[in-house]
Write a structure and sequence with these properties.
This is KLLA0E03213p. Pfam families: Actin (PF00022). By secondary structure, the protein is α+β, with helices and mostly antiparallel strands. Helix content is about 35%, strand content about 10%. Among the domains are: about 50 residues, no CATH class; about 140 residues, ATPase, substrate binding domain, subdomain 4 (Actin, Chain A, domain 4), CATH 3.90.640; about 220 residues, Nucleotidyltransferase, domain 5. It has a six-stranded mixed β-sheet with strand order 3-2-1-10-11-19, with helices on both faces. It starts with about 40 loop residues before the first helix and ends in a 16-residue tail after the last helix.
Length: about 800
């Protein structure tokens, strides 16, 4: 037997061993006599120990020669209050960091806001009340207190024509005109009315609209009386005005002539242009930096501040400035927002106006909240200056599906006015560039235009012209006039937007001095502009011939779908690097040109909807399975969308221009098969990436095109019920719920958003903004603020 080793023995003493009589076995089970012992001999261990000591001494000598050896100074007394810190056991330790709500700063702020609501509620708020008991986040004893824990919020939705503002306990907002009147001696000099009667381009585009109008009436078997346009023009030429006494003019305007102060909102619309400068601080979801009547960026911020203060102080709202600290704010921003605008508004609302907190929500998502929609939705917002389209899926705006078209309700108004003047309108010296003339044009547009086929006939209308410069008791005159196809041809300009480019007024020169004071947002590392951009917007500008509605071959549509890549947005500025001042200035000029082109997209509305929905379905994955849901949930909002039968004509035009391949309900199955074919081809040929050799790349693309084309042809052959209703994607345009005004639907969505519990985690307070600045938006936004 082997002798057991006592663990208490010194290692220098060798235990007595007896030679083992058992044979040694190898790995193959046979007897082996050459297997060495695994125990290291004692003399070898001692030799290694002495070697380590010698090496340490040599290393210490080298440190001494260099002069960096460690020396203990025994003359310096060690501080008594400092104790050596013991090393943490890395194998077994734990921490309570960020495990309690009190350790998260926004949870502490939420508790503070609740406690503040208990003691400092708004005196003007109704029974929806701010004064709720504070919650204890540790025990959460009272669950009902969570539902009642609401601070009233102010919802602000700035637009190009109106600012919709009001507290969330109101049913509807107050629509305040986006207008400021500043007293001056020079006044506002309107540009003269442009005569386009001899413009051949305008006449050609107008003929195209009228041809399409007649074709539509013929398709729906609507009879058109011959010489209807001439009959209306003959009546208008002979129409004489009728004097309306001031006592009988119920819409008489009390013009403001007092130049002792500035006027905002509704009061600004009643100021005489000869005594005041009229300016608008908002334009296209941002600040109006091109307004020539502004001398500095601070003037714009001051006008915005006064518009908000005076709007909330109106009798219908009744919230004074000293009460702002008791209210939160929900700011509705565009889907493709300007970061400089957003951050400037946050600073203004939190720091200057002293609101308690602010939360952000995008317009399309707010519209879905206002309409009560939870499915994937395509939102169309027809505003005064722009028309915006975006798809919403799972509570998030699909950024790369957003489109921003450079026409809106104001362009329809301008086109309608030019058509009236061409039809011998009795108000011959009408100038729509004057504020009073523009107000009249807006009134006539809202009164007359329609898409209802049954209403197209020669009809008699009337209006009252009010001249602020006429003598007293002679300021109002009543005119009668007749219209025929102008009521439908003018709003049809949204399907023929090229005509809007012809009649747009001449743009003012950019206000460079103000623009320099409000530079575009740039990435702090690359110094490149980092405003939110959309892949669909970029592709529509760069390749207008490759819009889905302009592609006649199925193979071209499929290849465009397969080649969608969001990396194109990042690569478009790769050649612009930060260099010298001259290079930076050149790059800035290039960016300004690109920005003007990016914001100058003009394409028919129905084609833009097809682009947005198709790209959103492809970018969301799932092989176009979202296509059916998006076409079934099209929501139209905005103040310029209140045209009768707009949903009817829009449905027809989408069906006309949507390609056959994008209209079938089984498109997702086809795309899945094509994906499998491409993957199988790349696997068989062992191709991970597209070949870099030009000739090989061309051969690769040709082979793939043949495979895709064969798959498409085989799929068409397999569809035997293609023309049945079951195989086509239906188009459903949703009406506003409860007959709500579509111009207020987005604001209503912000009101709904302000009442959900999620808002507590999205509120940005003054402490957040002062401590982190715009970095807090990465963590307290319901959408992605910074692109990665």
């Amino acid at each position: 037997m082997d002798t057991e080793i006592d663990p208490t023995e010194s290692p220098s003493k060798e235990p007595s061993k007896e030679p083992s009589k058992e044979p040694l076995l190898g790995s193959d089970g046979k007897i082996s006599k050459d297997i060495p012992s695994k125990k290291v001999p004692q003399h070898l261990l001692e030799k290694r120990r002495l070697g380590r000591i010698k090496a340490a001494e040599e290393f210490a000598k080298k440190l001494k020669i260099i002069g960096i050896e460690r020396q203990e100074n025994e003359h310096i007394a060690q501080p008594i209050t400092l104790k050596p810190v013991s090393v943490i056991n890395q194998k077994n330790y734990s921490s309570n960091y960020l495990k309690n709500d009190d350790q998260i700063f926004y949870m502490r702020e939420r508790k503070h806001l609740r406690q503040q609501g208990q003691t400092g509620g708004s005196s003007s708020a109704p029974a929806a009340g701010i004064g709720t008991p504070a919650l204890d986040d540790d025990n959460m004893a009272d669950s009902n207190a969570i539902e009642d824990d609401e601070l009233d919020s102010i919802i602000i939705h700035p637009g190009s024509s109106f600012i919709k503002i009001g507290p969330n306990y109101d049913i509807f907002p107050q629509q305040v005109p986006n207008l400021v009147a500043v007293p001056t001696h020079g006044g506002t000099v309107p540009s003269p009315q442009e005569d386009i009667s001899n413009n051949e381009i305008f006449q050609q585009l107008k003929d195209d609209i009228q041809f399409d109008f007649k074709e539509r009436m013929r398709y729906y078997k609507r009879r058109i009386m011959p010489n209807s346009t001439e009959q209306a023009a003959a009546f208008n030429a002979k129409s004489d005005p009728e004097l309306v006494p001031d006592l009988n003019d119920f819409g008489r305007i009390e013009w403001i002539k007092d130049r002792s102060k500035s006027y905002y909102g509704h009061d600004a619309t009643q100021c005489l242009p000869s005594d005041f400068k009229l300016r608008s601080p908002f334009l296209n979801g941002s600040f109006n930096l091109n307004e020539p009547n502004y001398n500095s960026f601070q003037e714009i911020l001051f006008d915005v501040e006064q518009l908000i203060v005076q709007s909330l102080a109106m009798e219908k709202i009744g919230i004074e400035r000293n009460q702002f600290s008791n209210y939160r704010v929900v700011l509705i921003v565009p889907d493709l927002f300007d970061k400089t605008f957003v951050e400037s508004m946050i600073h203004l609302l939190l720091i200057e106006l002293d609101f308690q907190s602010i939360a952000l929500i995008q317009e399309s998502l707010a519209s879905c909240y206002g309409a009560g929609l939870s499915n994937s939705t395509c939102v169309i917002d027809i505003g005064a200056k722009q028309t915006k389209i975006a798809c919403v899926d799972d509570g998030v705006v699909v950024k790369n599906s957003a489109l921003r078209l450079n026409y809106g309700g104001d362009d329809i108004t301008r086109l309608f006015a030019h058509m009236l003047l061409q039809n011998k309108f009795p108000y011959a010296d009408w100038n729509i560039n004057e504020p009073n003339g523009w107000t009249l044009a807006e009134t006539l547009k809202k009164q007359c235009i329609t898409f209802q086929d049954a209403d197209i006939a020669i009809q008699l209308y009337s209006f009252i012209k009010r001249d602020p410069y006429a003598r007293k008791y002679t300021q109002s005159h009543k005119y009668e006039y007749k219209l025929f196809d102008e009521v439908m041809c003018a709003p049809m300009g949204i399907f023929f937007p090229d005509i809007f480019e012809v009649i747009k007024p001449k743009q003012h020169k950019p206000n460079e001095y103000v623009i320099r004071q409000c530079p575009r947002s740039k990435d702090i590392y690359t110094l490149k502009p980092n405003d939110t951009k959309s892949l669909t917007q970029m592709l529509c500008i760069q390749e207008p011939t490759k819009w889905y509605s302009n592609l006649s071959r199925d193979i071209d549509i499929v290849q465009k779908l397969l080649n969608l890549d969001t990396d194109d947005l990042d690569e478009q500025n790769d050649d612009e690097s930060a260099g010298s001042k001259e290079e930076t200035q050149i790059n800035d000029e290039i960016e300004d040109i690109n920005l003007r082109q990016y914001n100058n997209l003009s394409m028919p509305l129905e084609k833009a909807i097809i682009e947005s929905i198709t790209n959103a379905s492809m970018l969301l994955g799932d092989n176009m399975s979202k296509l059916n849901v998006l076409y079934s949930n099209i929501l139209i909002v905005g103040g310029s969308s209140k045209i009768p039968a707009l949903d009817f004509i829009l449905t027809d035009r989408i069906n006309i221009w949507r390609p056959k391949l994008l209209s079938i309900s089984a498109l997702s199955t086809l795309m899945e098969k094509i994906g499998e074919v491409i993957k199988s081809y790349e696997t068989d040929n062992k191709l991970d990436l597209e070949p870099t050799d030009p000739q090989a790349a061309i051969a690769y693309k040709k082979k793939l095109s043949k495979l895709i084309k064969a798959e498409i042809e085989a799929y068409w052959d397999s569809l035997q019920t293609l023309h049945s209703d079951d195989d086509l994607l239906p188009i459903n345009i949703l009406p506003p719920p409860h007959d709500m005004d579509p111009s207020m639907l987005t604001w209503k969505g912000g009101s709904v958003f302000s009442k959900i519990k999620l808002l507590e985690e999205l509120n940005i307070t003054k402490q957040d903004w002062n401590m982190l600045g715009n970095r807090i938006l990465q963590y307290k936004c319901i959408f992605e603020y910074f692109d990665h």
